[in-house]
Amino acid sequence: MSYRIEYERLIGLISAAADAPLFSLEAWQAYLGAETETVRLFSAQLAYEWQPLRVPSALCETIMAQAQAHLAASGFAWRNLWAHILRVTGNALLLAESAEISAEQAFLLGILHDVGKLDELRQGTSHELIGAQMAQQWLASQLPTDIVERLAAAIAKRGAQHDPFVQVLHDTDKLDKIGATGILRRLSSYIGEQNPAAALRIVLHELAHFPKMHFAESARLAERKRNFVAAFLARAAMLIY
């Protein structure tokens, strides 16, 4: 089987899973299978990129359940977004020690950063501001006021650039735009389902405009993700244009 056919099949397989309840590395690997070398390489890259998700406290467990329930209640293409949120949260946990923030704080940054995304479509207010307001409401009396305010400011993208909360959220969110997870994210979206080539062009754009990372761990992960997605898109170029 030619690599072009292998790439066509892989891209088609991912696009066919638009908004499917595939929330973990294991779920995606089981869905993709291991029929071809291209799929096996893609799954191996996913395993490298997809960081373990652990829930560090009872508060995090509660907020995670609230966030998922809020998105699910929208009834609109929430599963792809939830998978992204979970990956970002895993990335945030990876950076917590280097950023000198607690695992709980890192978890809350990740799990709440896009919780207002679907509300934006209905309300016309930016999802960052909606998410910040929800974070303040849900965390009031649960954490010190100054921590809640810093979390909300980072989610609203109004925090100080030197704040570790802002830096962690910046790196973790950007990391999910490239690499195997970036490809997965765009292809398994509504856009990917309707127009896989357009979804891959979004990944290409993200690669071309990928910013500098703040931490050694995120920089190393970004470098490998950049290399993988560049090679993938070069092979899939005939399917993009």
Question: Keywords for this structure?
Answer:
mainly alpha; Hypothetical protein af1432; 241 residues; 15 helices; 0% strand
Describe the overall structure.
This protein folds into two domains: 3-50 and 177-196 and 206-240, no CATH class; 58-174, Hypothetical protein af1432 (Orthogonal Bundle), CATH 1.10.3210.10. The mean pLDDT is 95. It contains 15 helices and no strands. The protein is an all-alpha fold. The longest helix has 22 residues, at 78-99. Helix content is 73%, strand content 0%. Helix 2 (25-32) packs antiparallel against helix 3. The two termini are 22 Å apart.
Topology:
Blueprint (H helix, E strand, L loop, with lengths): L2 H13 L9 H8 L4 H13 L8 H15 L5 H22 L3 H10 L4 H7 L3 H13 L5 H11 L8 H12 L3 H9 L2 H5 L1 H13 L7 H20 L1 H4 L1
Helix pairs in contact: 2-3, 4-6, 5-6, 5-10, 6-9, 6-10, 7-8, 8-9, 11-13, 11-14, 13-14
